[in-house]
Design brief:
Layout (H helix, E strand, L loop, with lengths): L3 H6 L3 H12 L4 H8 L11 H9 L11 H35 L1 E3 L6 E3 L10 H40 L18 H13 L6 H10 L14 E6 L8 E7 L4 E3 L4 E3 L16 E6 L4 E6 L2 E2 L6 E2 L4 E6 L5 E7 L15 E8 L9 E7 L3 E7 L5 E7 L8 H5 L3 E4 L2 H5 L4 E2 L13 E2 L3 E2 L14
Antiparallel strand pairs: 1-2, 3-8, 4-7, 4-15, 5-6, 7-8, 9-10, 11-12, 11-20, 12-13, 13-14, 14-17, 15-16, 18-19
Helix pairs in contact: 2-5, 4-6, 5-6, 7-8
Length: 455
């Protein structure tokens, strides 16, 4: 995770050296490899970009000085990352300066804002105290926004470094030749615009853009794209975005025949959708449900494949959304999903009351993998709605726990509001008891269906 202190220390000028090398098209492979591996301000940066920079030190892109098109792609992405980093550092320094003037202390790791004097200042009126508290709240919000942007920049920079050093292909098989895998930000803008008809502007827009991006940037995915589907629902203004990530907490798991790669992480309110097996979000501001299944890869890197999840949703008049999902590992032995070894469940998100009121979630889900749900409100607040650790944190977790389900939250009461149908006996593990009827399947991004009654 990238901290506020990391942003203050970062030197955008180091990215410009990549741009200069590729723009001139005069560098040797070894020169570029050395540059990628020696970004000094990433030495203490705890993020994907730092991992990519360290890997680049021992990896050379053999064709970087031979193909002008590929040089141009890296240069374009480097320019975007430079601009992104410059704005990020500028805004972080501005916030730090405002905090310094007021005597606030910003924790460089957590981003927490404290005031060593508060509330010991004597003689303040209630209005003055409230204004002081409002200033702390506003700086806290701005710090949180910068840290969120920094996480996104970290992923953008990692994509640039992986593409420049050969970790991911610059010209992927079957891709449009104009596609630039190094330019993650530009690709997300295009993906968001294709559905929303405009570029992303808010932090929540960018969160949705990450989910919609139809490309893979992690080297383990070998350029294999995710599967993305969308459904239109009625908006509930003030509820922001609710995002759920289903992820494998270990580095590898047994997949029946071969070992498969996991996501190798813990709970993270700023998680990258690519660092999950399945992600689905409810954009309450616009009225969309979006689901994404990422590629599965064998541990030896020889096979990468993406499954097609079955995701359906329904919505009540008060905005409550039910999501039913079933996603299988495409690399698992034939018949395992039909026998109950798939990631499946049903969650119900109930909006909060009033503008900006917090939502709540309940569900009936498989005991594996780990699950996390966060609500990102329009005012910048992040609320943890649910975290649920995998039933087993060993490589045998899927085998032992996928056929089993458990409930959380006030699921029975929430589900009673929906018309339901009971699971057929014998379908062990395939779906929780009481699968909702009259749900609508998610469809293609280019022509998304809608739940009945969408206004």
């Amino acid at each position: 995770m990238v901290g506020f202190g990391d942003v203050l220390r970062f030197d955008p000028g180091q990215i410009s050296s990549i741009f200069a090398i590729c723009s001139a098209q005069q560098a040797t492979c070894s020169t570029l490899g050395t540059t990628l591996g020696s970004l000094d301000s990433l030495s203490t940066w705890q993020g994907d970009a730092a991992d990519a920079a360290r890997a680049a030190a021992g990896r050379v892109r053999v064709d970087i000085d031979s193909y002008g098109v590929e040089n141009a792609k890296v240069a374009a992405a480097a320019r975007d990352c430079f601009n992104e980093a410059t704005a990020l550092v500028r805004d972080a320094r501005s916030v730090q300066a405002q905090a310094d003037v007021r005597g606030f202390v910003i924790d460089p790791v957590s981003g927490a804002v404290t005031d060593l004097l508060w509330p010991s200042v004597p003689g303040w009126s209630p209005a003055e105290r409230q204004a002081h508290q409002d200033a702390i709240t506003e700086i806290t919000r701005r710090v949180a926004e910068i840290c969120s942007r920094a996480e996104r920049f970290d992923d953008d920079l990692a994509a640039l470094l992986n593409a420049a050093s050969g970790g991911i292909a610059l010209t992927a098989d079957g891709e449009n030749p104009d596609f630039n895998p190094a330019a993650r930000q530009a690709n997300q803008i295009a993906a968001f615009r294709s559905l929303y008809g405009r570029p992303p502007t808010s932090e929540n827009d960018w969160r949705v853009a990450e989910v919609l991006d139809p490309h893979s940037y992690s080297p383990k995915n070998n350029g294999v794209p995710p599967q993305i589907s969308v459904l239109r629902i009625n908006p509930v203004p003030g509820q922001g975005v609710v995002a759920t990530g289903l992820f494998i907490p270990t580095a590898t798991v047994h997949g029946g025949i071969d070992d498969h790669l996991g996501d190798n992480r813990g709970f993270d309110p700023t998680f990258d959708p690519e660092d999950t097996r399945v992600t689905y979000v409810v954009d309450y501001e616009t009225g969309l449900v979006i689901a994404r299944q990422n590629p599965s890869a064998t541990a030896d890197g020889t096979t990468v494949r993406t499954g097609t999840p079955r995701v359906r949703a329904s919505q009540l008049d008060d905005g409550t959304v039910l999501v039913n999902y079933d996603a299988a590992d495409p690399l698992a032995p034939p018949g395992t999903a039909e026998a109950g070894w798939s990631v499946n469940g049903q969650t119900i998100i109930t909006p909060g009351e009033g503008d900006g009121g917090g939502a709540r979630i309940s569900g009936n889900v498989t005991d594996y993998p780990s699950m996390e749900t966060y609500q990102y409100l329009p005012d910048g607040q992040t609320r943890v709605l649910h975290t649920d650790g995998a039933g087993d944190h060993t490589s045998f977790g899927p085998f032992l726990n996928l056929p089993l389900h458990h409930e959380f939250g006030d699921y029975d009461r929430d589900f009673e509001q929906f018309p339901g149908e009971t699971r057929v006996l014998g379908q062990v593990g395939k779906a929780p008891t009481g699968v909702a009827a009259d749900t609508t399947p998610l469809g293609p991004v280019g022509d998304p269906p809608a739940v009945p009654g969408v206004r």
